[in-house]
Please model this.
Amino acid sequence: MSLSLINEQPAVYEDPLDLMDEIEELKKSREATILAHYYVDGEIQDIADFTGDSLKLARDATRVTTPVIVFAGVHFMGESAKIMNPTKRVLIPDLHAGCSLADSCPPDQLAAFQQELRSQGRNFQTVAYINTSAAVKSLCDWIVTSGNAREIIERVPADREILFVPDQHLGRYLSEVTGRRMILWPGSCMVHEIFSIQDLIRARKNNPGSVVMAHPECPQNILEITDVIGGTEKMRKHVMSVAEPTTFLVATESAMIHPLRKAAPQHTYIPVPGIMASTGETCACNRCPHMARNTLQKLRDCLRDGRPEIEWKDFFTKAREVLDRSLLQM
Ligand code: SF4
Model:
């Protein structure tokens, strides 16, 4: 899939093994630690010092001892790493690696909506999924990931309403499992939104005895026929807990198949296909175009040149308080 921005030069082919050697050298000479999300290419995960979901990586970032962190993921993850480690330099391979879910909740619109609720006398706390910009985090009371959402929501006083941003599907799912009523922001992730229920049903029929695993960012119709609902770390732990070779139909970003295979190679993993909203055609890849902007070449360039870098902004201080009490004080 080509996702080049206008004026962005297509990369010249370089041998991945040479690039990996170069990255290893640069990592030492630049005193850097590489963190990679489960949704980036497997070859990047293989040379990273830490891999994981958003929650695990946010915590791992606080254990880094080198002065430089390179975050192979998307922009809000780099921001979170910087917020948790203000004294370190945080680099990301591509500044344009954004997130459709984070973009669906602009901070000015959230601030205006919160103001409207307050003017109606509503007594609420704002809970944000970690897939939000730092500016949005600074407007919230709590940050959750798919790995800790239940525990955090239980901390919101029972007499308060909950405004949940930005993922409507995750919010609805959490509202069901916690029994808390929520005001849902109408955002969604472009990858999890497009899974095709028809293809999932067909895949299940074609693979008798298979187990469906889906991320809670998926729409309700997918979760209704899912056997294991959970974030990426929960999926990984689940396949490791099953000894008997099993076929798993996996409804999340397709790069997730790589860590699942590494963790439990005895199983068969089939990515659930999606439907292109624009054309209605089946799309077999389910790759996040933002995560796919991370390449070995950009990772090498970023280590070599010391940029792009996430710079500290004033509102990071408030976002840090929220992230700290949500992710570290457990
Ligand atoms: S998979 Fe969805 S939520 Fe995750 S980074 Fe991509 S667009 Fe954002």
